[in-house]
Every structure is written in C-alpha cells, then in structure tokens.
Amino acid sequence: MMKTVFDRPAALTNVPLHYCPGCTHGIVHRLVAEVIDELGVEGKTVGIAPVGCAVFAYNYFNCDMIEAAHGRAPAVATGVKRTHPECVVFTYQGDGDLAAIGTAETVHSATRGENITIIFINNCIYGMTGGQMAPTTLPGQVTTTTPYGRKRNIQGSPVRVCEMLSTLDGVALAARVSVDCPKNVMNAKAMIKKAFQNQLDGKGFSIVEVLSTCPTNWGMTPRDALQWLRDNMIPYYPLGIYKDSAAIRDPEETQEAGK
Fold this sequence. Notes:
CATH superfamily: Thiamin diphosphate (ThDP)-binding fold, Pyr/PP domains
CATH class: Alpha Beta
CATH architecture: 3-Layer(aba) Sandwich
CATH topology: Rossmann fold
Number of helices: 10
Strand content: 15-25%
Largest sheet: 7 strands, mixed
Radius of gyration: 18 Å
Structural class: alpha/beta
Distance between the termini: 60 Å
Shape: globular
Helix content: 25-40%
C-alpha cells in the first residue's frame, strides 16, 4: 500500500491559480494553508483579501474570506477580530496595498496591538496595475513610473516596514523572510506559523514580510528574478526577526502581573 507523502493542504482550494509564471504568491499561499491545517483552525479562520495581484485570494483559501477596499485590510481585520474574538483573522497584502494607500491602517492597527496576523508580500513593485513604483521599490530600480530608476532626491528612499513597525509597543512579531530557496521557504513557514500561534495566544499584532518576485513586471525569467531578489532585495531588506515579544495590550493587566 502506497503512503501519501505530499498533498494539497485542505485549506487550499483545488483550483488553478491566476498568477503569472514564476510568481511566488503561490508558494506563500501554500505555506499559509499548511499552517492553517497544522493548527486545526480552518473552521474558524477569516482571511482578508487585498486589492492587488492577490485580489482573488478568496478563491484559493478554504475558509471565510472578505474582500477589503485598497489598503483597508487591517481595518477590516480589526472589525472582524473585535466582533468575533474566537476567530483567527489574517490579512494577505502586497506592498502597494499595505505600505502605500494602507499605511495608516497598518501603523495604527499595529500601534493598538490588534490581535491579528498580517502576511505582507514585498516584491518592490505594483504588480497588478502595470509595474509602477511602490514604496518598497529599490533605489535605481526601473519601473513604468521611474523609467530612469528610482532617485532618492526625487522619490525618496524605500520603506522598511518591519524595521518601522518593530518600534511600536503593540507589535508582538515583526519578521522578514523570503521564498527564494527551500531553506528560506521552510523558515518562512515557521515564521508564518509563529504569527498565527501568537494570535491564538493573544499576544497582539504579528506581521511576516515575505520578499517575493515579480518576473513579469521586472522583465526577467523566473530564475533571473530569484537571483535578482538575492542580489538586490536581501541586502536592502535583510532577513530576520525584528521584534519578537508579547504585546503590552492593557496597562491594568501589566500592573496586576507586577503585584
């Protein structure tokens, strides 16, 4: 009798993904689904889909999903979690969604220590709308809106989201990972699982930033795009854990614990 050693996660629907060849969204989708399976929370998980390349994420996860307005996923997640605290609530957002139009929602949900999980895909570009400059676009990187490369004196410097959010008391976990090789994929899954476990433990806001590729808008083959990520993105966005601590959510609880 043959033993199954690899299969589709139950939390991932059995439909073709719409992403471009070589796009790493599919890898991250699988990791999130595997974590949902392993934690046994599929029946009480609510995902918030973004506006961007992952706008159809609600087709791919076997859990309740809500489509948010552009950048507003953390605000929607806040409402769901506060209304249904028993649910496991996560957002899945790109850099244009989370770090541009959604900056306020991201920062303030983190400041409040909302007990939600954020999966943040950073591919240094606006993917769905045609390859425009994103807040995370690297200096010198060519996009349709920076045809001569991003210039610091004109467009400013890229936003390092994990470093920024790690300064906030409400953040329990801020980690940056990549899915460019098997070792990094395994580490990415571990961090995603930790972010979901933090929510189950009531620790507060957790964000996992995933460095990803966009071969189509970068104008590269999938293999070249992965190497470009290693050569250019990782030096500017170093992998690692930027904060890992229980969020202080209620001063009265802190005072009680100190007695």
